[in-house]
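Narrative of activities, Objective 1.

The group set out to show that a structural description can be obtained from nothing but a protein's sequence at a throughput compatible with the screening campaign. Below is one input-output pair from the validation batch, recorded exactly as produced.
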Amino acid sequence: MLPKDIGDRISIIQSDSITHPDTSEQWLVEDITLSTTTLRLASSNEVATVNNAAISNSRIVNGARSEKAIVTINIKLNYKATQEQVSNFRIRVENYLLDRPDIWAGLVHFRNDAVSHDASSAEYILRAQHQRPWQDTPPIMVHRGELEQFMTDVAVDLGIAWKSTHKRMRIMEVPTIQHTSIGGGGITETIATNSNRSTNNNGVTDPILAAAAAAPTTTTTAIKEEPFLQFMKAQTGKEPSSL
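Output recorded for this entry:
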C-alpha cells in the first residue's frame, strides 16, 4: 500500500522528527508516477515535483488517513487561581465541546504543564479531538481558533486570566546628531531632542506624541576637539585657535 494517494494532504518530515499537523508544511498530492510525485504546497499554492527515491527514507504523514484530528492549545492562567476556579474553567470548556458534537468529539485531556512564579503564570495544555481528519486542516484550524478564543473569554470571566508583568515601552523620539566641521579642527555636535510627530503609525493623533511635539525644542551644542589638538593644548596650555 502506497503511503499517499492523489488528493491526499501530506507532510514530509525526517523519520526521527516529531510533526505537528497544525504547524507543519502540508502538501497536496496531484500526481504520482513510478519515479516522481507532483505536490502542491497548501500554504502558497506552489507546485513541486520530487523524486520518489529522495523521500523514500522520510516519514510521510497522511492527513486523509489521520482520522479525528487532535488539536493542542496552550493557555496561561494566573498561578494564584484556586483549584475550584480551574475546575470551573475545565467544566465550561468541556461543555463547549459537548454542545458542538458535529464539530468536536470531546476533550482528550486538560492538565497543568508548568508554573512560573516570576511570570505569575501557570501553563496548561488542552487537547481536544475534532470530528474531521487532518485532511480538512483549514476548518479544523478555524474551529481551533474559536475554541482558543472561548477559553480566553472564560479565563477573563473567572478572573484567572494571566496578565504579562512586562511593561510596554513607548519610544517618543530618537535624538538626531549633526556634525559640522569648524575652524581649528573642532567639531560642532548638535543634538535635537524634541519631535514634531503627533500621530502614530496608523495616522491617528496620539496625545502623548502631540504633547511631546508641542514641547519647546531643546538643542545642545558642544565643541569636540580632535585628539591631536587636545594633546597640543595639554602640552602648551594654549587654545587650539591660538596655536
